[in-house]
Structures are given as C-alpha cells and as structure tokens.
Amino acid sequence: MKPVLLLGALLALPGCNAFLSEGTADVAGLAGAALSTAVTDNGAVAAGIGLGVQSVARAGLQYTQRRLQRAEQDSIAAAAGPLTVGQVAGWSIAHTVPIADDHQGQVTVSRDIGGLGLACREIVFSVETLERPKPGQPAPTPAEVPERGFYTAVICRNGTQWKWASAEPATERWGALQ
Known about the structure:
By secondary structure, the chain is α+β, with helices and mostly antiparallel strands. The protein has helices spanning 3-11, 17-39, 43-80; strands spanning 88-93, 102-115, 118-130, 149-158, 161-164. Helix 1 (3-11) runs antiparallel to helix 2 and helix 2 (17-39) runs antiparallel to helix 3.
C-alpha cells in the first residue's frame, strides 16, 4: 500500500488521536525511507531525511490538532460571552476535519473578573462527545451519549469577541513556553 493511501486511511478514523499521531509518524518514516533510498546510498543521509520527513509530518498533525482545539474554545467562549452570571447556554462544534470528534455541552458564567478596560469571566462548561455515525448506521440515541465532563476556564473580551484566556496549548500568546 502506498504511504499516501495509508495516510488517507488514517485521516478517515475520527477520535483515534493516539493511533493517528503514531500512524502519521510511521507513514512519514516510510515515505522518508522511500525518498532517501531514491536520493542516496549513504545511511546517515538517509536517516536524516527520514527523521526530517517524520518531524514535518508530526508538526503538521500537531498544528491541525491545535487549530481544532482553538475552534472548540472559540465556540465555548462565543456562547459564554453574552451570558450574565448564572445564566446557562448550550454550545457545540462540528469539525470539518475528521480527525477530531464533534462536541457539545453547556456553559455558564460563574463570575466576572477584571478591571478598568479588562473584561474577563470565569466559566464552567461541560463537554459531551458526539460520535459520528458510521455509514449506514443510525445516529446514537440520547441514552448512548457518553457522560459529560466538567471544566473551568477564563475568557476575556478582545474587541468585540470573547477569547479563551486560560493557558492551554491553543492559547497563542505563550507559544513554545507552555
């Protein structure tokens, strides 16, 4: 099987992040080995090419995963922004890239924090995973939906938008220091 087809097959498996991460590295290693064999007979150069291709593939996957997480956080922040303290609203996200499950839940503002020119909120939110039905199978019934997980975070107003302010991998301001 060609590495490109194998990578395509891996991308079709939603929710298998560990498998996808390792599978991407393995497929990239195979592609790097094939490329290096075509380019050189030197073992050190071949190893360097293989490691380089593997690193680029892993970085690409991590970038995509961070963007998906940011989209989820933006969805939660947008739902929580207009709420008053104690009010509850629903949120949901349907990812277009099939490497992440779709999620939904509820969010509430537990308190307003900040000061002059700094509007922030502490939020409590739930997350429920929405499993994608396999072709030809019905959607899961409410009884089949997994239990909810509950989390807290801080969001802050950035112009007209509410943005995630908790230091997590998708928070851009910290970069590589997280």
